[in-house]
Each structure stands twice: as structure tokens, then as C-alpha cells.
Amino acid sequence: MTGTLNLPALTTAWGEVRLPGSKSISNRLLLLAALAGGETEILDLLDSDDTRVMLAALQKLGVGVTPSGPDAWRVIGCGGVFGVKEADLFMGNAGTAIRPLTAALAMAGGHYRLSGVARMHQRPIGDLVDGLRQIGADVHYLAAEGFPPLEIFPAPIHLSGPIRLRGDVSSQFLTALLLTLPLTGQEAVVELTTELISKPYVEITLNLMARFGVRVEREGWQRFRIASGQRYCSPGRIHVEGDASSASYFLAAGAIAARGGKRCVRVEGAGRSSIQGDVRFAEALEQLGARITWGENFITAQAPEHSLLKAFDLDLNHIPDAAMTLAVLALFTDGRCLLRNIGSWRVKETDRISAMATELRKFGAVVEEGDDWLAVTCPRRGIDGPRSGIPVMQGPGMQSPPAPGLCRNVEVATYDDHRMAMCFSLVALAGVPVTIRDADCVGKTFPGYFDAFAAITAPVIAIDGPSASGKGTVAMRVAERLGFHYLDSGALYRLVALAAGREGVALDDEAALAALAAGLPARFEGERVWLGEADVTTDIRSEEASGGASRVALLPAVRRALLARQRAWRRFPGLVADGRDMATVVFPGAEVKIFLTATAEARAERRYKQLIAKGMPANIYVLLKDLQERDARDTRRSEAPLRQAEDAVGIDTTPMDIDQAVAAVMDRVSEICAARA
Hints:
Helix content: 25-40%
Radius of gyration: 29 Å
Largest sheet: 5 strands, parallel
Number of helices: 21
Strand content: 15-25%
């Protein structure tokens, strides 16, 4: 995904998202591991533009950094002494990389130059440089005073007294000093001359330093002391938590549009035990009326049962990044919303207060702004609010519901700011199409964001039923009419059986079959099915493959292995999925659930005619017996037995041809959409 992205009108959100690693934790851990003695393996490291910048810089400085597995890196620490004493380092727009590295290099006894993109050269670093100069560091500005690019020369470091530092511009300046002062081996004291903003981010720093063996004593949030003689030592192996800032978008989606039954949005990777302050965004959602559930390593969010979210007046100094999500959430509340103490927005990737105000006004919102505050009022007051729970689909009788008061088809400028792109994707949940310009800027922290967003918001029609009930052909044609993607889940099981036969794996070897299913090199191109480089469209329709699929589908490990692959088909503009457990297990929150059935005799006759038409031998009595045995296996299996979901619409296709069955399903889809509207 690059460039402009057109998001369709959306009104529902449900499902599960596994968060990528935290950017704040990832870059701190990379630097700590590099400065420590010993070898550190960092697991679940975020793969993004900002972490790639840090990795590249460390490698250029002579630090041994190598991949050790998926999202895992091995860092051979330099013990605080970089092997390379002269380097030019390009830091992109990564504040979490350039600021601590500036401090580390100022104490490294080398000659270095640090630069970045144009916006980085507009982001202040003067307070950090002033703090470093207080202890003898030789740091020069190469352009505007107080801003990168920088040049650093070797200089002796002396800690004769407290370092006095402002704390009201960016907490990253304090973090940079705290992370690197232990390299001196001397007692170090940092005193803040102003109130510290974004305290939770400093708490992350202190927590991670302690894991590497260095403890910081603090007196409130004004004075920090590092005792002499402390050195960083590798903890061996360490995990990166899921990114709590990224969690805010999905939790917000749940708070807006996860309504009806057990629907919710669940984020995995951050929860009650998280060290990140941004998990407190979920507490803010609770104040707005969202229904929140906490686990040690997960959070779920649901919309209020019968109302809009409540308007709010909040001091958001403690969650400045996640606070941006609240600015967009204001469009879904019942009044004027005030975001206070967000002055740090002005020195981020862009001037976020100005950018947010500009883009919100495009949707018709009334926006007021000050130096460190923003007030947002949605234009649609006194109207029933966003109609969450309505699938937004195109086709006969399925028009997008009106968006009360919000302007449609707005083009959102992102200012090369990843959080602007992610925040404004939420507006589509008001049932209005939205265009995100330069959407690939999400690569800074979350390259797969829009895929993950689609995985909880794209509408799903689940069509289940017994073998030969016509569900595959019907589902494919419904998908074509709607312009949706199509998932033939049965084809996946057929592919597993076919691949097992070709690789000599027994159909009762559950572990081997599950491993085969997890790594299945399958792809679908229109009506063609490929296994690796082989076109197996015809092969998987053989009776042998069909019978094998029925057997492997009984195995719980195989079903679990294919579950994530099936859910990955959910993407914009929507999905029609057919199988035997689409509505009950794979997509239990599907907007529309259909259960197709027919008598065994009618299904046997259909199968018989299909085989004869293909010139294949067939015996209708054998086919009938096979279908009856298959029905028995499917309904009795322990894992996801074949059954009609409680909220599914049943359609008996015994007297119907395919066109009639498709029409019947489309009628039901239209009726369900109309009823919910």
C-alpha cells in the first residue's frame, strides 16, 4: 500500500488485533543493548521506518546487530565504547533515535554528524544540547540554532554539578540524558527547571534501564540521580511489548462501532501489566462511556449500548500521542470536546494541533485551537448519531447509510505524519468514504496498519452449509455482485489434503498436517487456485481431494492452523466467506450470516450432474452415501462442528437452481441491512 488510499464507508468494528512492538520501547532497547556489556536478543522488535533508522545507525557505529528470527534481533553490546569514531548518520524523522544517540555520541569521544529529513530539522533539540554542553560536550549546530543537523566533536565529560534541563518541550531530552549518563561512570544528577510533560514515557525509560542493571533515584518528577559506578549489563533475552499508542486506534474503533451481541475489538500485546502510559487511553474511553475490559496482556472495547460517546474535557499531558485519537473521536460524541495540555503536539512530526484542526474542519467540525489546547464540536447534534452495526455494502437495496452532518469523500492530508493517517481512518466508521493521502507514512511505526484496520472493519457475509448445498457457487456470485473478496474455506482444506498426498504425509498425522497447513504456499487468482507454482484448480475438485479435505477438517490442530489464514481474507471493501464454520468460529461477528441447506438426495443429484458434465464417472447412490457419511462426520466433530449459527438466516435450496439461490441470499442480505438501518 502506497500513496493515496480510499477507505469505503464503514459502520462496524469487531475482531482481534495483535499489536506490533512499541516504537518507544524498541528504540530504547536497541540503544541499551548496544551500550551494554554482553549479547542481548530482542524479541518482537517493531519493524518500522524509525527502528530501521536506529538499526542502521548502530551498525554504522560498529555495533554487532543481526536478525535472529522473525521480529527478533541479536545485539552484541559495545560496553559503551563505539568502535567507529567518525560517521555521518541519517536519522530520518525518528525523534526516539536522534535524541538519545546525540547524547550517547557526545560522550563517545568521536567525530559525528547527525541529520534527518526536512521536518527533523524543524524539531527542537536545543534543550538537550544545552544540557550536554553543561557537562563539557562539544556539540555544534550546522544550520538553525537549536535544531538539527548537528556535528559532535570529542570532548572530556565532567559531572561537577546537577544538569539543569527544561522538561516542558519534550520528555525525550530527559530520556536521552538518563539513558547515556551511566556511560560516564560518575554520579549524575539531572534537575528539571520546568514541569515535566509525558511522564509515562520517562517511566518507560527508568523501567528499561533497571532491566539492564542501572537504577535511577528520583525525587518526584524534578530531580533524578544516577549513582556512580553503574554499568549496563545485558539481561540476555528481552521482549518488546505491543505498542499501546497503536492500540488506541483499534480500541477507539471498538468504542465507536462494536455494538450488538458479543461484538468487541480486542487488542493483544498491551494490558494491565504494560509499562506504557498510553494504555491509559482505555481509561479515557471509559470516561466517554465505552465498555472496556482489561486483561494482563489485552484490552477489549465496545461501544455504549444505546447512546453516543460522551463529550469530554480532559488534561492529556500524560498520553500526548494517544490523545490525537481522542480528537477524532470527538466527531462521535454528544457535544463539545476539549483536549487540554497538548502543547507538545506542536513539535512532533508536524504541528499536530494545527494539522488536526485543519483536517477536522474539512468534515464540517467546529474547531477552536490554542497554544496547548484543542476544542472540537461535531456538526451533527440532535441527530441519532453514527449507525453502528449496519453493514455498508453496494448493490440492489444496499446503499450506504447517510452520515449525519459529516462531509463525505473528504481528502485528508497527512503531513508525512503517521498518526494523522491512522487517526483519520476512524472517520470512515461514521459511514462516510474517506481518502487518506500519502497513506504509506504509517510505515514510520506501523507498516501494516491499514491491513489490520480492515481486519476489524471490513464487512463480512458468512455463508455456511453442508457439502454440495451450493454455498461455494452462491458465495462466489454474491461476492461478484457486491464487488467483495471471496473466501472458499473448503479450498484450503482441499489444498492441505492435496499437499499431504504429494508430500507423503498421512491424513491422520495431525502435527505434520498442521505444520503443512500453517506454511501452505497457496494463492487464489480469480477462479484459479495455485499450490506453489502449480495450478491445482481442477485437482482440488477431485473426489479424492474432497474426501481428504473432510478428514483433515476433523483435526483441531489443522483447523487452528488455518484460522488466521482465513481471517486474513477480511479486507476492503468486504468479504463473502463460505464453509462449515464461517459464522460460528471464523467470523462470529459477521454482519450477515446465511446457512444454506438442501436434502441429501438433492445434493447428491447436483454432485452427480456436475461430475457427468465434466466427463467423470459417477454413481448417484455412492454419492448419496458419501454425503450422508460426510454430514455425520461434520456435525459430530469435536472442533467446530457443522451447525447453523443462532443468528443465521436459513435458506433451503432444495427446490432452487443457482440463480434462484443467489437471488434468495441477496434478498436476505438486503432485508438484514434495511432492518438494521
